[in-house]
Design goal:
It comes from Arthrobacter gallicola. This is Glycosyltransferase. Pfam families: Glyco_trans_4_4, Glycos_transf_1. InterPro entries: Glyco_trans_1, Glyco_trans_4-like_N. The chain is built from 14 helices and 14 strands. β12, α10 and β13 form a beta-alpha-beta unit. The N terminus and C terminus are likely disordered. The two termini are 33 Å apart. The chain has two domains: 207 residues, 3-Layer(aba) Sandwich (Rossmann fold), CATH 3.40.50; 160 residues, Glycogen Phosphorylase B (Rossmann fold), CATH 3.40.50. The protein has an eight-stranded mixed β-sheet with strand order 3-4-2-1-5-6-7-8, with helices on both faces.
């Protein structure tokens, strides 16, 4: 029986559509999740193809040893300053429609952008079961352009997926307000693979902020908290690693007038391996972000066993609190400074947090568990395709 189930799993053809893939930090967390899911599914035996948009000339197709292929499609900025939602390109929706006809299930990481919206609309004619995941990015809005988009376009898109994968209760409430029935939602988690590195407590204390220098991540509050902690006598260094998305100038100005400029380091954007290395040798990873639904960096740090100081506004806070795997702090400079000072003075607390974080990752956020959860959700989506058009198979693009 087990052999039959394995054979069926190996025959499953999954098409993932991950939105913007690059270059560099332009991709963001959604693409990282799509890559992680695709790799986990391939390791579980599924044949996976992942599509992503690329600003500029796209890289060649990636073909790994596992049944996992990544294909990049060119997207453009139709006008100067166009952000994620304004990127345009027909190649990705076209590839999605063609490849979707030979897939068993299509998993779309759906946002209010052209490429994933157009791809989803084209997929409705293939008859393939569509599973959507919005990563908390589809929320009701009072902005006039968004309301127009939702009324004339998004409401049709929302009818296509047979199933919606959600990360938090808030995301489910938002989708319900947009018209998605609760019965079409299933909860999943994000995950990262078992890392090669493992955290070790450094001799010289280092508190790490590794995220985009964007307003929601609050890098300036991290700096303000660090200055308060230094003024109170904490002997530590503070590292900010991540691409600038509007906050770098403010951060540099705060550091320059802090009186502790020598205690800070701004590294800019790091590669994934460099981020892991920085996490593995820091005293604690600190994320003071506001309204943060599901930060992958926290899961990556937990996998390494890094002591965590995380905002109470983080969507992962309930799991972290239940497991005793993080220090939860209000996202204010004073609260963060106190959390860093207390944790910096308590070796045993850091050791306990590390062990609990590793246990939490293996129990909840492992790649193996993610793959099995996704496969079960895909099977449910396939069994719930009522009233869809017959499948029309065509050979994929190779």
């Amino acid at each position: 029986m087990a052999d039959d189930q394995t054979a069926q799993t190996r025959q499953l053809r999954v098409l993932q559509i991950g939105g913007l893939a690059g270059p560099g930090a332009a991709a963001g967390g959604v693409w990282a999740v799509a890559r992680m899911q695709s790799a986990a599914l391939a390791a579980a035996g599924a044949a996976v193809e992942l599509l992503g948009g690329w600003l500029g000339e796209p890289p060649p197709v990636e073909r790994g040893s596992a049944p996992y292929t990544v294909r990049y499609c060119r997207v453009r900025r139709p006008f100067p300053g166009a952000k994620l939602r304004g990127l345009a390109g027909l190649a990705l929706p076209w590839h999605a429609a063609v490849l979707g006809r030979s897939a068993d299930v299509v998993h779309v990481h759906l946002c209010r952008d052209f490429i994933t919206t157009a791809a989803t609309l084209l997929l409705r004619r293939t008859g393939v079961p569509v599973v959507a995941q919005s990563h908390g990015m589809l929320v009701p809005s009072g902005a006039a352009p968004v309301r127009v988009f939702d009324r004339f376009i998004l409401r049709h898109v929302l009818r296509v997926p047979a199933l919606w994968l959600t990360l938090t209760a808030q995301e489910e409430r938002d989708l319900q307000q947009l018209g998605v029935r609760r019965s079409r939602m299933r909860r999943v988690v994000n995950a990262v693979p078992e890392p090669v590195l493992r955290w070790s407590d450094p001799e010289q204390q280092v508190f790490l902020f590794a995220a985009r220098l964007a307003a929601r991540k609050q890098p300036a509050v991290f700096v303000q908290a660090a200055v308060e902690a230094l003024d109170a006598g904490l002997d530590a260094r503070f590292v900010l690693a991540g691409p600038d998305q509007g906050e770098a100038a403010k951060v540099r100005a705060l550091i320059a007038r802090s009186g502790h400029a020598e205690r800070f380091e701004l590294t800019g954007e790091l590669t994934p391996d460099e981020v892991q290395a920085a996490m593995a040798r820091c005293t604690a990873f600190v994320l003071p972000s506001l309204n943060e639904p599901y930060p992958m960096a926290v899961i990556e740090a937990a996998a390494l066993g890094v002591p965590l100081i995380v905002s109470t506004e983080c969507g992962l806070a309930p799991e972290l609190e239940l497991a005793g795997a993080a220090v939860l702090s209000e996202p204010s400079a004073g609260a963060l400074a106190e959390a860093m000072r207390k944790l910096g003075a308590d070796f045993q607390a850091r050791s306990d947090l590390s062990a609990r974080a590793v246990d939490l990752h293996r129990t909840v956020w492992s790649a193996e568990k993610l793959a099995q959860d996704l496969l079960s959700r895909y099977a449910l989506a396939g069994s719930s395709r009522h009233g869809q058009r017959p499948r029309r198979r065509k050979a994929g693009i190779r």
